Amino acid sequence: MTVTTSTIDDLIKNQNPFAGHIVVRPQQIWGKSFPDVLSINAHASNAVFDAVEKVRKGKRETVGITITAEKGLGKSHIISRIRHRLQTEDSSLFIYMSKYDNLNQIKSQFLQSVASSLRAFGSQEVMQWQEIAAALINEVKQWNYTPQQYINMYPGWLSKHSTKAIVHFTESVLKIKPEITNPYIVKAILWTLSPVHINYASYWLSGLELAQSQAEAMGLPNPKSEDREAEALSIVRQILDITSYYRVPVICFDELDIADAADNGFMAAQVIANLVKDLYNSLKQGVLLLAMYPRTWEDQIKALPEAEAVVDRLVSDQADRQPIALKYLNSDDIVALVSQWLQDFYEEHQQTPPHPLDPFNETKLRELGKSRPTVRSVLKWCAENFVPNEPIIDDSTNSTTITTNTTTSWTSTTIHPVKAYFNSELANVEASIDSLMKEEATITDALLLAFNNLIGKTLEGVTIESIEEVEPSAANNGFMDFKIIGNKRKVRIGVDVVQQDRTVIGAALGRLIDYKTFDLTRGCLVRSKKISPNAELARERLRILLEKKGGEWVGLQSQDIKPLLAILFVYYNRESYDLTEEQICEFIEQKKLAISNPLIREILSDPSGQEPTNLTDDGLPISIPKSVANADHIDLNL
Fold first, then answer.
1. Distance in angstroms (rounded) separating the CA atoms of residues 102 and 575
2. The pTM is what?
C-alpha cells in the first residue's frame, strides 16, 4: 500500500486543482488555459489545422467548419487548444467572438470583436495588429525588421517627422496594393506600432469615435453614428483582407446556444450563421469556425431560409455536409485527462506524489468511462472527490459513479459548497483583471448581483427596496445601467459604469445629470480612469454632476470589484457547478461580499462632490516627448 506524505496530504486538503475549473472562460481562450490532452477529440482540432494549411498553400480560399457537442463535452477546450497552437506559429491570426449583447447590431459587435482579438499577442509576443503593421512596412520597404524593432523605432521617427512618417508608410502601401479602397484602415493599422497611439488606433479600428482633436492629430476621420452598422461589415472585410496578405485569419464563434433573439426573430446561432455566410462569400481567404449544440444545429441552422446555402458554407469541407461531432470520453481519455491535470498541479507545487494519479485510483477512474461521460462531468467528479482518502464508491453497484449531491445540508463547521468555486474564480479574476476592468457589462452584472442581494437591508443610511431598469429606455439608449431605489423611493440613484474613453463618457454623463427625465435624486458614475481635460463636454457635464446636482463619481478600484466578479462567474456557471441560486446568495451574505464591499458602500454613501483619487490615465498622450531618442537602426530621410 502506498502512503502519501503529510505534505502532499496537506496540499490535497488545501488546494483543489479541479474546483472552479470546470468551465472554460474567454480569458482562458486567450491566456493560460487548462491542461490539455491533445489526443482527446483530436479529429476536431486537426480539421481546423488542416484547413489553415490548405488555405495557406492556396489549395482553398475559405473553409467553414462547425463543431457540435452536448454541454460540457469540450467545445471550448478544443477552441482553446486551437488558439494556443496557432499562437506558436506565424502563419495565422486568431479572432474570437463569444458575446452577443445586441443581435440587432451584430456587424458592429463583430467589428469590435475583431479589433479586440487582434490586440491579443500573436506568435511574436506583440499584438496581432502590430504583426500585420510590421509585415506591411517590410513588404513595401523590402526590410526585415521585427514588430518590436518597429515599436522601438517609431518614437524617434515621429519625434523627427511627426505624422509625415505614417503618411509616408500609408502611401507606400497603397502604391503596391491599389485594391485597398480604404486608406484610413491602413493608416490606423500602421499607428498601432506607436506605443503612445496603439490604444487610440485600435479603438478607431473597432468602429468607435475618437475625440475630434485626437482624430485630427492621427489623420483619421471619425465614423458617423448613423452609418456604423451599415459600414461595419465592409470595414471588417477590408481588415481581414489586409491581414490575409500575411496570415490566415481563423475566425471562431463560440457560445452560440443562448436563447436571445434579434428583432427579426432569428436566434443568436441563426444571426451568426447568416453573418458567416456573408463572410464566406466575401473574404479573400480564411477559416470560419462555429461551435454549438447538436440541437441548435438541427432546430435553428437547418430551419433558416435558404438553409442549404448556409449549411454548405458552415461545413464546406465535410463530404456529408454534417458538423464535426465531439466524442464522449472513454477510459483511456479519462486517465490521460486526470493524469495531465495532476502532473501540472504537482509540478506547480514542486511535489512528487506516491503515484501519478494520486489521490485517485486508476481502476476507479477507468470505471467512469463506462458511462461515456463529458469532460465537464469528469472534472466535476474529480473536484468533489479530491481528498487524501479514496474516491467515493457506490456500494450498491460496486462501481465508481459520477454523482452530485446538491441537497446535502451544511453547518458552520463544514465547508460551504460555493467556497472552492469562489476561490478558484477569484484566482482566475486575479490573473485576468486588466482585461476584465475594460468589460463594462460584466462589471455592471457584478454590481447588480451584489445590490440584488442587499434588497431589504440598510447600509450607509439607505434601506434598499429594489433595483430597477432605467426608464424611459429610448431616452437612455443604454447609457445608464440601473437605478437603486431606497428609503420609500426618497433615494433614487442612477448608476453607470463607464470605462470607455472620450465621447462615450460625455453621453453617459448627459444622462446622469438629467434627473427629471430619469426620475433620479442622484447620478453616480463608476469609473477607474481619469477624464481628459481635452474632453470639454464631458468635463462640463461632470462639473454639473458633482457641483450642481449633488451626484457622485465613484472610483472603480480593482481590489474592490475582484470578489464581486468572482462570485458573478460562480453565478454564471452555477449549473455546471451544480450550485443553486440560494447557495450562492447564502455565500454572499455569509462572507459579507456585498454588504462590506467598499465599492458598494461608496455608491450608497453621501457624495463628496470631489473627483476620486487613485485613477488611471484616460488613454495616452498625443505628443511624443522630445527626450525620446531617434531611431536606432534607420532614418526615413523624409
1. 24
2. 0.76
